[in-house]
Amino acid sequence: MTSRKNILVAVDTSDEAKQVLKTAIEIGNCFDARLSLIHVLEPIVTENSYDLINPVSVEMDEFLFRHAEDFLNNIKKEFAPEMAACVEVGSVKSQILRHAKENDIDLIVVGSHGRHGLGLLLGSTANALLHGSPCDVYVVRIKN
Predict the structure, then answer these.
(1) Which of 10, 55, 126, 131 has the fewest CB atoms within 10 Å distance of its CB?
(2) pLDDT digits over 104-142, tens only?
(3) Which of 50, 31, 23, 53 is closest to 105 using CA atoms?
């Protein structure tokens, strides 16, 4: 089996993120790997015109960014305080893949679903990562 030294754990801010992180920690322990967390905020479009506008207010952007940072810091405290964590803004797939390439990631760990309703019809993050990743992707089945 291939050695894993740098594992990227991609999470949303739901309760299921803890399941994903627990599994990633188990994998990381097997390989004595360094784990890092990433959460990507997708821009929210509030208007469907083609005008160049700020999709949401600056205050909302800041609130969502702080919420994501707080969430990552809290699960780090609970599971692995030494773990690196970052919040990025943009396309979830693009930002995770960019981070993986720039940081020599050996394995990306992601949950089997993070979206509900319309998001499932448009395709999942896990599926998108499987088709564009520079490394292996481990998909954690989320238990309800």
Answers:
(1) 131
(2) 999 999 988 645 443 443 347 888 888 889 999 999 988
(3) 31
The pTM of the full predicted model, rounded to 2 decimals, is 0.84
Please tell me the distance from the alpha carbon of residue 23 to that of residue 18, in angstroms, as a whole number. Answer: 9
The SS3 assignment for 134 reads coil
Which domains does the chain show, CATH number per domain? 6-140 (3.40.50.620)
> Residue 87: beta bridge partners?
39
Closest CA to 94 of 18, 47, 43: 43
Query: How far apart (Å, rounded) are the C-alpha atoms in residues 18 and 2?
Result: 25
Count of residues in the chain: 144
Q: Residue 62 is encoded by which pair of tokens?
A: 């800041």
- Residue 10, classed as helix, strand or coil, is strand
